[in-house]
Amino acid sequence: QVQLVESGGGSVQAGGSLRLSCAASGYTLSSSCMGWFRQAPGKEREFVSSIDTAGAIMYADPVKGRFTVSQDNAKNILYLQMSSLKPEDSAMYYCAAARGWTYCLRSLSRYGKWGQGTQVTVSS
Question: What percent of the chain has pLDDT over 90?
Fold first, then answer.
């Protein structure tokens, strides 16, 4: 059974940092595109970042230069290092796997397996 489990969320002040982790079981993260998304209350889920099997990375414009996605294939964990956090970064953050796809798109429909999410709250 494939499971993605996010962790690392929490409450920080603006300007702070957090590192999110997404641990996979029953699935090899490096075998497909992996993505991070977020959803704030009352808003649609939105793309944050992705990494494909060749290591190509994409970021949403609002997080460019502040967030870094990486993957530890030995541990089978996907990370999202978030720095210079802003209140508008507050959201539930989800990792997702685009199983069967080696390259990534920003569209949610590409991703068929999702974790349960981890909450990030940034106070001003």
Answer: 99
